Amino acid sequence: MEEFDYLDEGEVYLDSACQSLRPRCVIDAVNKYYTEHNSCGERVKYKWGVETDEKVEEARNLVLKYLDLKPKKYTVSFTLNTTYGINLILSQIRADAFSKIMTSEIEHNSPFLSSIAFHERTGLPREVMKRNEDGSINVFDYDFTDAVVVINCASNFDGRKLLNIKEVVKAVHKAGGIIIIDAAQAMAHSVDILRGVEVDAICFSAHKLYAPSLGVIVWRDELDAKLVRGFVGGGMVDDVDKDSYVFSSENKEHRYTRFESGLQAWGEIIGLGVALKWLMKLPKSAWRNLENNYTELYEYLNSSAKVHFVNHEANPTMSFYVESLDSHLLGSALSRENVMARTGYFCVHYYLDHVLKQPPLVRFSLGLHNRPEDIDKVKKVMEKIIH
């Protein structure tokens, strides 16, 4: 793909679940901000600032369009990353409005650890739910009464999805609870599962979405009534007196400031907008190429008796270990062949280590930049190891 023409021949990047590569158009947009209209958004009236404001506002609108959510109900706020966004919300939730916090066993440490911290801060019970092999949750096994539910809709080690997300959301809301979705792994390649689903908040990282390093919170405006003010600063107020202040977020037009204090990463936000436009215009052939690549690689590896997958089916993200071979050593060997892959537990220590009792794993996570020749090379390298 031309947008990734900076990749040297023979370099194979298989760590998109950590952060995706950026297409040229995104890199160019960020560079343009810094070289042509570097300015403080929302604070200045000169022409550079006006251009920045327009592009940032466009990015907010594109996020909602990409998720098929209505601006009358939802607001987009920018943060550092998914972990920060989840923690920012949970740290401000009114404990007296809820009875417990619930998460699931296959979570990245982002929701898993933040749910522990919430329990420790509030004293409310914490419950860890089981997930099925396909990623779904048996809703009738759990009591969601007045619960704060924090779960992913796609895992970061095998890509399994919360297939019954609509059923889960309905059950949580019917029981008076709220649901916060970790969408870090879904936004790039599995966003269809999330589109139009009216959860209370969605947190994701733009750097897994072919965009610069950035965090995003998409939140239902009604959530504000269940939060306390615990994080304040510049950019969040319209006026300040000696002992009081007036929040900008009281105005719907500036509701996003609820989670935005201080100067934001304007260039990165603009880059996110460009990445979303790029994704929404991609031809079907690009998605077919991705599917062909990950299916071919999964089926090849799965044909070996020495390869043990966590996956139950082909997915752009696949985790495995090779029998009688240390995964970290394998990762180093792959690196010497210019194949870049992640090894370890991928911040899912509880489930992979303590529940499944897996050894450290290798993770191949493919992206839209991968070429058929990348798959050929990985197969040749792995052939020496597994056959």
Structure notes:
By secondary structure, the chain is an alpha/beta fold. The protein has two domains: 2-21 and 283-386, Aspartate Aminotransferase, domain 1 (Alpha-Beta Complex), CATH 3.90.1150; 37-279, Type I PLP-dependent aspartate aminotransferase-like (Major domain) (Aspartate Aminotransferase, domain 2, 3-Layer(aba) Sandwich), CATH 3.40.640.10. Helix content is 35%, strand content 17%. The chain has helices at residues 24-36, 47-67, 82-90, 109-122, 165-174, 266-281, 284-302, 327-336, 349-355, 372-386, and strands at residues 12-13, 74-79, 100-104, 126-129, 147-152, 178-182, 201-205, 215-220, 237-240, 245-247, 307-309, 317-322, 339-340, 342-344, 361-365. The strands form four sheets. It has a seven-stranded mixed sheet, sandwiched between helices. Strand 11 and strand 12 (317-322) form a beta hairpin. 44% of the residues are buried. The model has no long low-confidence stretch (mean pLDDT 96).
| Strand runs, count | 15
First-to-last CA distance: 32 Å
Order of helices and strands: EHHEHEHEEHEEEEEHHEEHEEHEH
DSSP strand (E) fraction? 15-25%
Helix content: 25-40%
Descriptive tags:
single chain; 387 residues; alpha/beta; Aspartate Aminotransferase, domain 1; Aspartate Aminotransferase, domain 2; 2 domains; 7-stranded mixed beta sheet; 4-stranded antiparallel beta sheet; globular
